[in-house]
Design goal:
With 362 residues, the protein is of the alpha/beta class. The protein has two domains: 187 residues, Rossmann fold; 167 residues, Glycogen Phosphorylase B (Rossmann fold, 3-Layer(aba) Sandwich), CATH 3.40.50. The protein has 15 helices and 13 strands. The strands form two sheets. The chain has a seven-stranded parallel sheet, with helices on both faces. Strands 10-9-8-11-12-13 form a six-stranded parallel sheet, with helices on both faces. α7 links the parallel β6 and β7. It is globular, with a radius of gyration of 21 Å. It starts with a strand and ends with a helix.
Length: 362
């Protein structure tokens, strides 16, 4: 049996943590024994208990960002020696950067869940984001088993001399509820829903402004799930029939109760929320960024792309077409693609094949 050691900053409930959970959930336990190290103290919304329930052996350095600057490398090295893993798999800039100088002759995998050159400047500002992107790309170049969470990210990384294989994100169908509860029963239909952090990259203001134009000639409601620094500004826009509900625990119930999903994101890896929408047989309206085009290629009857350059007016026009474009067949096709193309089990099997190849050729 091989010991696989996963290394991440924390187990905060977010897309990367959820995808890692899916990888581990479907590991062949006759062949792989999962261990996991976190670098920092766990946040309130940690999935630590969920990982424990999977039987993962968990460790934490429990270092603050400041203390981590001085002690993370030495303490992580000590723990690596203690665990004695056969293979290391990291994700995130901090974990990838640390492991790049510590993995020794053990096979080391990393998963790129974003394109640093796009994501970091948008999230952290131009100066800090550029420095972070350069640092992360340097670490990625040192990894002989880099994995990208989408074909889009893999192609983007190739422009920086980073060779990677693409293993597309997967949705855990067992965790998608059947929509027994309808939290939106009092809203006017059709209901458009969007899910994501309220940050500039998610482009929620465009969604709201487009919906305002849509309402000039149509009825309906817009539901936005998620929290973030833009919440107050978005609420201040004052559009009718727009419901900013913050973070909720039962996202799939809201998806199941809606009619259409919208994402106007400016950049993505392979977004979990879109895959979850498809798993609830929800047709999706997506911005024409490369990662969304990747989903559209697999799911053309249940997915419409709109041109970001067309702004709110262009998205509003696309929203007005959905009743004619999407049919019951579209919903069935959305579910089929989630099961056959973007399932968590399929994703985990692909990682395990890559692990086996690296371990046997060591």
């Amino acid at each position: 049996m091989y010991k696989v050691l996963y290394i991440v900053s924390t187990l905060k409930c977010a897309g990367p943590t959820n995808q890692l959970y899916n990888i581990i959930k479907y590991l062949n336990r006759d062949k792989y024994q999962p261990h996991l190290i976190t670098l920092s103290p766990e946040p309130k919304d940690s999935r630590w208990a969920d990982y424990e329930a999977l039987g993962v052996k968990l460790y934490s350095l429990n270092l603050s960002r400041f203390r981590g600057l001085f002690f993370a490398k030495s303490e992580l090295k000590h723990l690596l020696d203690q665990v004695g893993a056969d293979l290391i798999h990291s994700q995130g800039i901090r974990a990838d950067s640390l492991v790049s100088s510590l993995c020794g002759d053990r096979p080391w995998f990393l998963t790129a869940r974003n394109y640093p050159w796009h994501d970091y400047p948008m999230k952290f500002g131009r100066l800090k984001g550029t420095i972070m992107a350069k640092k992360h790309l340097v670490a990625m170049r040192l990894c002989h088993h880099a994995v990208a969470c989408s074909k889009t990210i893999s192609a983007q990384l190739s422009h920086h001399d980073i060779k990677s294989i693409a293993i597309q994100n997967g949705v855990n169908l067992l965790e998608i509820n059947s929509g027994k509860e309808d939290p939106l029963s009092n809203l006017e239909r059709p209901i458009f829903v969007s899910v994501g952090s309220l940050i500039p990259r998610k482009n929620m203001q465009l969604v709201i402004e487009a919906f305002g134009r849509y309402l000039n000639q149509n009825k309906g409601s817009l539901v936005i799930l998620g929290d973030g620094p833009q919440l107050a500004d978005l609420r201040s826009l004052g559009f009718e029939h727009v419901h900013l509900l913050g973070n909720v625990d039962n996202v799939s119930d809201y998806l199941s109760a809606s009619d259409y999903f919208i994402s106007a994101s400016l950049s993505e890896g392979l977004p979990n929320t879109v895959l979850e929408a498809l798993a609830t047989e929800l047709p999706v309206i997506l911005s024409d960024i490369p990662s969304h085009e990747e989903i559209h290629a697999a799911c053309k009857t249940a997915c419409i792309l709109f041109n970001l350059a067309g702004g709110a007016e262009g998205l509003a026009e696309t929203m007005m077409q959905v009743g004619d474009v999407f049919t019951e067949e579209s919903r069935l096709d959305a579910g089929r693609v989630a099961r056959e193309v973007f399932s968590a089990e399929t994703m985990s099997r692909a990682y395990q094949l890559a692990y086996t190849s690296a371990l046997e050729s060591k």
